[in-house]
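I hope you will forgive my troubling you with a question about protein structure. The record follows directly beneath this note:
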Amino acid sequence: MPQYFIDHECAPGTSVSLTGKDYHHLIHVRRVHVGDGVYLRDSVGSLFTGWIAKINEIEITVDIASRLKDGEDTPVIVLGMSILKHSNFDLVVQKAVEVGVSAIIPVVAERTIIDLKGKEKERRERWMKIAEEASKQSMRSSIPEIGLPVSFDGFIESQKDTPVKIITAPGDQDYTLRSALDQQKGSRAALLVGPEGGFSPEEISRAVSGGFLCVVTGSTQMRAETAGIVIPALLRYELETRFGDACE
């Protein structure tokens, strides 16, 4: 059973109403009945169990039973993902949220194929809906931020104070993910993943000048959408292994 987000603080012994798309999902997809259990996540990130007490034509009333211990304690990972063809970027948003990124910033690189001029807000709304659904399914304590598209240089500048900065591209000095984390220590990371055609040499040079380390991803060549899912998962694992409870 996925969780449902509530826009205020909750407490055991109180009740909440689920309406709109949550109501539709529970009634028409989950086909719930009175007495069924649900998970609720409130505005401060606390997780609760609840029981459906009442169902009418427009809302479901849930009685909150208890607060659960929350196991999510992750590093902060900002994924700067070059905009990919429509469905491929949707896939990255969905899966990157599931593996634990904190934010996804669409990046316009030199070799980006898709032109979103005039459609940035519309596309962002779509990505935010995907992120919300993925957060419900994967029991995230909050919905990761999805930013408006920025330029390559804009992303570099925005991450200047981030302690760990990685770009998935070959450079003059290449690192493995682990060796990069030996060089840059911290539980907050910015990760840049390129478009279908990769980053240009000039972009790689500017990223390195901005403090990013070039990380090679192994002996096989990943598709851009694959790298946007796999590398954040590996980065999260490495950061959690190194910092554990110190993760911010």
